[in-house]
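Inverse folding, one chain.
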């Protein structure tokens, strides 16, 4: 298992990426969650510098993006640069709205996900919080069942969003966090770890809100999770700056490691 951090939430003007990554590695993280469209803008020297700090600290990498921003060439470049250190690529779900309400845009997602499978054979890939359970598989079966048969397809489970669902939507209120984890209908490749008050997506440090992170960790152990746990604290979501928030990252990582250890 690897323990990562969403690097994009801590980038700021004047702070070199390699310096930030070295600081995060020093705090105990052994994986980096990066955005492929940002990596595509790096020049050759920046790529070399990033590669050196990744190698020196024995880091792995995950990519997270959305469907409109995805470019196959970005993924190819990341695969070439990071090799086996690149563990997965995940996407925010694509949605569409009709006169009947809001739905997952499964046709768009399936097209891109098949492109990922063809572009980077053997890489793990999937969508954040989709499919959440067997009912979702049945509802989107035409496009989803073929994806479930692809080698490497799975999902990312966002634990902060789990807390929002359990507080705001009756459908998810019946079970505890462990039950929610057990019910998801695809292999879990990565989890995003953050906290909130159940009402707003605050992306706080673990322990700052009321999310049942202990229950979620128990559920992950029960399903044999062996992927990447990414701390996705976003300072701007709760009125902090990256500089103010970074010192608390080590404690957040240690707290989550302890929960995962049981």
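Residues assigned per position:
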């Amino acid at each position: 298992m690897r323990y990562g951090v969403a690097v994009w939430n801590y980038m700021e003007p004047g702070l070199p990426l390699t310096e930030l990554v070295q600081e995060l590695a020093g705090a105990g993280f052994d994986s980096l969650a990066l955005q492929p469209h940002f990596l595509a803008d790096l020049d050759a020297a920046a790529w070399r510098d990033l590669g050196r700090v990744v190698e020196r600290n024995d880091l792995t990498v995950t990519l997270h993006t959305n469907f409109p921003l995805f470019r196959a060439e970005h993924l190819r470049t990341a695969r070439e640069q990071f090799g086996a250190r690149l563990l997965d690529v995940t996407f925010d779900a694509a949605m569409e709205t009709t006169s009947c309400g809001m739905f997952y845009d499964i046709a768009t997602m399936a097209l891109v996900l098949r492109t990922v499978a063809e572009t980077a054979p053997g890489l793990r890939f999937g969508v954040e919080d989709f499919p959440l359970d067997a009912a979702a598989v049945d509802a989107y079966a035409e496009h989803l069942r073929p994806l479930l048969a692809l080698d490497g397809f799975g999902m990312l489970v966002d634990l902060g969003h789990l807390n929002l669902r359990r507080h705001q939507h009756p459908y998810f209120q019946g079970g505890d966090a462990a039950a929610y984890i057990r019910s998801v209908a695809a292999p879990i490749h990565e989890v995003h770890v953050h906290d909130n008050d159940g009402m707003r997506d605050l992306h706080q440090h673990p322990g700052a809100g009321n999310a049942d992170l202990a229950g979620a960790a128990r559920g992950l152990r029960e399903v044999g999770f062996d992927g990447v746990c990414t701390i996705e604290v976003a300072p701007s979501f709760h009125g902090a700056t990256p500089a103010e928030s970074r010192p608390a990252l080590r404690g957040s990582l240690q707290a989550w490691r302890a929960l995962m250890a049981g």
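The beta strands are 2-6, 31-34, 60-66, 86-92, 95-98, 101-104, 124-128, 153-158, 188-193, 228-231. The radius of gyration is 18 Å.
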